[in-house]
Every structure is written in structure tokens, then in C-alpha cells.
Amino acid sequence: MTLQTNPSKTIPLVDIRGLRKRYGTNEVLKGIDLQIERREVVCIIGKSGSGKSTLLRCINGLEEFQEGVLTVHGQALKINDPHAMRELRQNVGMIFQSFNLFPHLTVGQNVMLAPMLVKALPKAEARRRAEQLLARVGLAEKFDHRPEQLSGGQQQRVAIARALAMDPEVLLCDEVTSALDPELVGEVLQVVEDLAEQGMTLMLVTHEMNFARKVSDRVVFMHQGKVHEMGPPEALFSRPKTPELQQFLSAL
Ligand SMILES: Nc1ncnc2c1ncn2[C@@H]1O[C@H](COP(=O)(O)OP(=O)(O)OP(=O)(O)O)[C@@H](O)[C@H]1O
To answer: Where is the ABC transporter domain (predicted)?
Structure first.
């Protein structure tokens, strides 16, 4: 009898091995090894300049890297292969600090655009999906509004709906509340928390430590371009092992 294995059970959704990235002579990622399982919520923390954003940008192909292997859903990221990169971008959603909505389109059109252009989804279907997603982020009634008529928190929730419209396997969030007024942070974090509870695989770069503690399955502390320490949030925040993490946490 041959033993059948289920590849989706054995291969991490995101698999990063020996990743090195340089800007000129400045090595920003110095050999990252990190595996993210399906449905896992991983928060990445660390000082400014430790390479957190660069790591996320490598995962969705926005940045080239010089060494290492990065696979998503078992497919290796090949920056020079446009077909492979198109597939990757469908599997990996990303939300940035700035919302980057198209100002001349309505909220609904912003959410419908990529599925129609990239996935060739018929307009009626794209509309139905956009309506569902906007309802999911609590903005059903804003479908025909322009982005400028929305608060920053609402615009970020539209950006989340737009990323979800491509049905990504994993969603990368890069400091999604950093550009918001403090009173608008909570509504966006709540949407992200809901996604986590619904089983979305998430990688979040965040400075919101309470949030990281609450939603993460695992927290990764980056320091000088390396994964310096990682573990479950209780252990990492309450019993940091390295002086660098102790220092980082005590400076907050
Ligand atoms: N496009 C670029 N060109 C040259 N250097 C860059 C570029 N982007 C980032 N860097 C450098 O790479 C290093 C890591 O930057 P990165 O933005 O990944 O850090 P970070 O941990 O996300 O910081 P922050 O918390 O401030 O966003 C920094 O030294 C930064 O100056």
C-alpha cells in the first residue's frame, strides 16, 4: 500500500528560506527563515528599520531579493516570470499604511476593479461580490460614495474589502492603522480581528502591541534584518528571552 500524503497539510502556505535582500550595499534582510501555516495569524514587530516592511514587500513580489527561496501555496516566487507573478499576486493580498484607493472611482468600483480586470469576472458578479465584501467591513451603504467622502478608517476598510475581492490565500497588512487618527484605529483593527476569527491567514506588521497580543497565534520579533525571537504572544511579551526584545518592549 502506498502512503498518500496531503500536500496542503505538509507544505506551509508561506515558506521563506534563507531570504537575503540588499539595497546597494545595505543588507536589509540577512537570511530570514519563516514558515506560515494556513489560517495562522502572525504579527511582525521590531524597531524602525529592522526590515519588517521589506519582508512583506518581498512576499508579494514588490521587492526583488538576492538570495533564498520564497514559496506561496507551494509555488516559488519568480520575479522575472510575469505569469508566475500574476498568479502570486492573486494569492497574496496586501494592505498598506496609505489606502491607495482610486479617487475618481466610487467605493464599489474600487472593490470591483481588480476581479474584473485580473480574473475577468463579469460585472454583475463583481458587483455582487463587492456588495458582500463592503457589508463584511460594515460599509454596505457607501457603495456609491467617492473615497474622499469617507473617513480614513472607512477608506482603509474599503482597501481591505478590495484586497479580499481577489480571494487571496494570505493577507499581508503593513501598519494599516499608522496613518489614522487615534479615534479611527479601533474600527480598522476590529475588521482585521474579525478576519482572523474567520480563519484568514494573516501576516501583520504592527506597532499596536495590545492588538498583536490579542490576535496573534505567533509573534515574530525582527532585529537588524533577522528573526531574532518568535513565539506565542504570551511567552514573547511576558517572558522575552533576548536583551534586544526586552529593550524593545520596555521602550514602548
Ligand atoms: N527603497 C529603498 N531603498 C533603499 N533602502 C531602503 C528602501 N526601503 C527600505 N530601505 C532600508 O531598508 C531598511 C529596512 O526598512 P523597512 O522599511 O523594511 O523597515 P521597517 O522595520 O519596516 O521600519 P518601519 O517600522 O519604520 O516601517 C532601512 O534601513 C531602510 O532605510
So the answer is: 14-249
pLDDT tens track for 120-133: 999 999 999 999 99
Helix ranges (H only) for the chain are: 7-10, 52-59, 82-91, 107-118, 123-136, 152-164, 182-197, 209-215, 233-238, 243-250
Ranges of residues in the chain with a pLDDT under 50 are: 1-8
- Which residue, judged by its Cα, is nearest atom 6 of ligand 1? 23
- Binding site membership of 50 for ligand 1 (Cβ less than 6 Å): yes
Q: Is 28 in the pocket of ligand 1 (CB under 6 A)?
A: yes
Query: How large is the ipTM?
Result: 0.97
Residue 180's nearest CA partner among 163, 157, 197 is: 157
Which among 19, 44, 52 is the best mutation to test ligand 1's pocket, defined by most ligand atoms within 8 Å of the CB? 52
- Asked whether 96 and 115 are in contact (CB, 8 A), the reply is no
Beta-sheet pairing, 75-76 with 67-72: antiparallel
Between CA 162 and CA 165 the distance in angstroms is 5
The sign one gets for the Cα dihedral 195, 84, 96, 211 is positive
CB distance 23 to ligand 1 below 6 Å = yes
* CATH class of the domain defined by 33-250: alpha beta
Nearest alpha carbon, ligand 1 atom 10: 23
Does this model's pTM top 0.80?
yes
Say which residue the cell 476581479 belongs to: 115
Identify the pLDDT of residue 89: 82
Contact 229, 45 (CB under 8 A): no
Q: CB-based contacts of 236: which residues, under 8 Å, 6+ apart? A: 219, 221, 229, 230, 245
CB atoms within 10 A of CB 166: 18
